[in-house]
Amino acid sequence: MHKRIYEGLSTAVALLDTNFTVLSINPAGEMLFAISANRLIGKEFMHLFQDNMPIMATLEEALARKNSITLRELKILLPGREAITVDMTVCPLTSPEGDTNLLIELVRVDRYLQLSREDDILDRHAATQAMLKGLAHEIKNPLGGLSGAAQLLEKQLPDRSLKEYTYIIVQEADRLRDLVDRMFASSKPLNKDLVNIHKILNHVRKITLAENHNGQLDIKQDYDPSLPELIGDNDQLIQAVLNIVKNAVESLKGTGRIILRTRIERQFTIGSRRHRLVLKAEIEDNGPGIPDELKEQVFYPMVTGRSEGTGLGLSLAQSIINSHDGLIEFKSRPGKTIFTILLPIIKSVS
Predict the structure, then answer these.
(1) Neighbouring-strand partners of residue 273
(2) Could you give the domains of the chain?
(3) Using an 8 Å Cβ cutoff, are 71 and 101 in contact?
(4) What is the pLDDT along the chain (350 residues), one digit of tens a residue?
(5) Are the C-beta atoms of residues 21 and 43 closer than 8 Å to each other?
(6) Is the dihedral of CA 262, 265, 271, 274 positive or negative?
(7) Best CA proximity match to 236, nearest among 274, 188, 270, 198
(8) 221: which strand partners?
(9) 338 phi and psi angles, rounded to 5 deg
(10) What is the largest CA-CA distance in the chain?
(11) Phi/psi of residue 257, each to 5°?
(12) Closest CA to 223 of 278, 281, 276, 285
C-alpha cells in the first residue's frame, strides 16, 4: 500500500542515504529529472544539478539537525534544460535500528508563480486603464474649449504675427487629444471573424522588412502549421503584433535577429480561465534586453526606455490582446527577449 501511494504521488519524491546516493525515486521524480529510476538509483543525487551548492548545504543541515527543512521558490538548473522553480522539502527518516535516510520532495511551482504574475498583470492593467479613462475624460473636455477659444481669439487679433501663437495653441491641443485617443484605440468594438495568425505574422514581417531594408535585420519564422484559425479582429491583432515587433526592432537598432514562433498549448489557464486550446505566438529578439528597472512597468502607458518614444506601443498591444481574452507575457535577459502572446482558440464568432 505504501509503495502504491509513493508511486502515485504527483510530486517528485526521492529517498537518499547519508552519502546522498539515490535509493529510490517515484515516477513523478523520473518525469521531473527526465531520467529513469534504473539509471538514477545508486548514483549521487547532486549529479542531477548544474549548481548544487544550495541543495547540498540544505541536505547537510537537515542531516546534522535531524529536522525537516523546506526551501521555497528554489531555482534549480538541470543539465541541458532551462532553470525550473521548485519548493524543496528535506525530511530525515531514522529507523528503529538508528539508520538515517533523507526523504526529498520537490514540487514545481513555475506555473503557480506564472498564474500569479498573470493575475497581477491583468489586475494592474485593468486598474491603469480605468484610471486613464477617467483622466482622459477630464483632459479632453477642457481641450475642446481651449481649442475653440483659441480659434475665436485668432479671428479677433489684428496683428498677423500674434496669430502664430493661437495656431500653436490649437496645434498642441489637437496633438494632446490625438495622444489620448491613441491610448484607447483598443477600446473600440472588435470586428470579429476567423483570422489566421500566420498571415498576421507574415504581414507584420513584410511591413517591418520594408521599413528596414538595409539588410541588417533578419526575421526568421518558426511556425506550427497545424494551428487552427481563431476568432478575432484581424486589424487590431496586426496592430498588437506590429507594436511588439517594432519594439524589438528599436531595441536592436535595426541590426539583429527576430524570430516569429507559434505553438499550441492544451488545457492552459489564462488569468482565472482554463481553455482547451490556446495559441502561443512568440516574438524573440537577440537585443540587449529590457532594463531591470523597467520590467515591472513595460505595459504601463508612457513608460519607455527611449527618449524619443511615447511608451504607448506595448500598453496598446496588451489592451488589444486583453480584449481578445488573452494576455502578453515576456522574459528578458541580455541577448534574448521573448514576448509571448496567449490567445484562446474558440470555434465560433460570439
Answers:
(1) 270
(2) 2-108 (3.30.450.20), 110-183 (no CATH), 189-350 (3.30.565.10)
(3) no
(4) 456 666 667 788 999 999 999 999 998 888 888 888 888 899 988 888 877 788 888 899 998 888 899 988 888 877 666 678 888 899 999 877 778 899 999 888 776 666 666 666 666 666 666 666 666 666 767 777 778 887 888 788 777 777 777 877 877 777 777 766 666 655 567 888 999 999 999 999 999 998 887 768 999 999 999 999 999 999 889 989 999 999 999 999 888 999 999 999 888 888 778 888 999 999 999 999 998 888 877 877 655 555 454 557 888 888 889 889 898 999 999 999 999 999 999 765 55
(5) yes
(6) positive
(7) 188
(8) 260
(9) -125, 120
(10) 107
(11) -125, 135
(12) 281
DSSP 101-126: EEEEEEEE-HHHHHHHHHHHHHHHHH
Residue among 332, 336, 344 nearest 197 (CA)? 344
> Cell 515516477 belongs to which residue?
27
Nearest to 105 by CA among 11, 25, 22: 11
**Helices of type H across 184-291:** 197-211, 234-252
Rg from Cα positions in the chain? 28
- Residue among 202, 313, 188, 331 at smallest CA distance from 250: 313
Q: Is 247 helix (H, G, I), strand (E, B) or coil?
A: helix
Residues 6+ apart with CB under 8 A from 20: 44, 45, 46, 56, 59, 102
Residue 130 grid cell: 480605468
Closest CA to 199 of 164, 159, 232: 232
Q: Identify the H or E element spanning 292.
A: none
Give the whole-angstrom CA distance, residue 345 versus residue 196.
11
Residue from 103, 66, 100, 67 nearest 88 by CA = 103
Q: In what order do the strands lie in the sheet with 69-77?
A: 22-25, 12-16, 100-108, 83-94, 69-77
